[in-house]
Amino acid sequence: MSMQMHERADAALGSRLLGREWELETFSVYLSHYLKMERIISIYGAAGVGKSALSEEFQKQAIRQGAATVALDAARFKAKPDDFCRQILKQLGLLGTLPSTSDPGFVVRAAIEAIQRRAESGPTILFLDSYELLDDLDDWFRDFFFPQIKAGCLTVISGRNPLSEHWLNSMVWKRSIYRMPLANLDYCSVVTYLRGRGITDQELIFRVWKQTDGHPLALAALYGGRENSGGPENGQEDSPAADRSLSLGPSPEYLPKAKPEEVIYARTDLTHREKEVAALAAEGMTNRDIASRLFLSEVTIKKHMRSIFQKVGASNRTQLLKLLMD
Questions:
Q1: Fewest C-beta in 10 Å: which of 77, 108, 152, 322?
Q2: Region annotation Disordered: residue ranges (predicted)?
Q3: Separation between Cα atoms, residue 60 and residue 40, nearest integer Å
Q4: Which residues of the chain have pLDDT under 50?
Q5: What is the structure's pLDDT at 140?
Q6: CA angle, 126 then 280 then 219, to 5°
Q7: Facing residues of 245 across strands?
Q8: Strands 124-129, 68-73: parallel, antiparallel or unpaired by DSSP?
Q9: CA distance linking residue 321 with residue 306, whole number of Å
Q10: Kind of pairing, strands 40-44 and 124-129?
């Protein structure tokens, strides 16, 4: 925790997650003292900032230390209590033990009891990713499910937004949640990332830093395929192709089969907030839904959308998506 910047950068060379050394160290402390720590770790940040990757690294770390893990992605099941609990039982190898006529309440009780039994025999960690997709279950998680999961089970929740004020104002949870916001990578981490891909020219590194703002997905879109592609001796860091990718944005070869969200976050002409708004709009969300998700007014969202349309050269959402993907 007390390493100097250059030492942290050197250590990161052997790590899959540059710039997340502090988060990994914090989670290591939780693994060692889980009975005395908060019961929920809330990881949150903008799309593409690396929440899922960090959660996966936590899972590996937990498994290495002998903890039992259950990892669920909200994008892969319906936002219903019994479907969520069936996923838990499936990962624990117990889904087949349910009677064929099990009602939803029985499934929920079976999942809670299964986690409790597992926690009694050692550290058990429940990972829940893409939590923003589970708004309809938020009250149920806070008031029913998690209160029944007693000591011995740590929960890691990952999502674009921090847990709501309802959690933080709850007598049960306000002292049991550790907030772990994820920001873009710092300059030191960007330098290490680019040097690992043979880019050492300081001017070019600074341009990449300024253009991507250290956003992990934007960096990966530009240079994700360059690892071990050569060092400064072959001059690739100063190549015309690299220079064009910085001047004009990511070229097609750096974004094969890109998703709208990936393309949006790789752009350099949009502000960070505009990227958030554009990504949610690309998902089909209305201005009202986006305003609710980002805790902003609809008027503010409309202003952002007008700015996005102007910068991209679109007149409506359909055209916006088409222009982004061209």
A1: 322
A2: 226-252
A3: 18
A4: 1-15, 228-258
A5: 96
A6: 75
A7: none
A8: parallel
A9: 14
A10: unpaired
- Buried b vs exposed e over 73-100: b needs ≥16 C-beta within 10 Å? bbeebeeebbebbbbbbebbebbeeeee
- Looking at residue 326, its pLDDT comes to 55
Look over the chain and give the mean of its residue pLDDT values, rounded to a whole number: 80
CB-CB contact of 301 with 277 (8 Å): yes
Query: What residues pair up with 141 in beta bridges, in sequence order?
Result: none
* 71: its two tokens: 């990892």
CB-CB contact of 215 with 263 (8 Å): no
Q: What is the pLDDT of residue 289?
A: 86
| pTM of the full structure | 0.66
Q: In what order do the strands lie in the sheet with 40-44?
A: 68-73, 124-129, 153-159, 40-44, 177-181
Alpha-carbon span 136 to 93, nearest angstrom:
27
- Give the integer Cα–Cα distance in Å for 234 and 250: 22
Q: What is the pLDDT of residues 222-272, one digit of tens each?
A: 776 555 433 333 333 333 333 333 332 333 333 334 466 667 777 778 888
Distance CA 59, CA 63 (A): 6
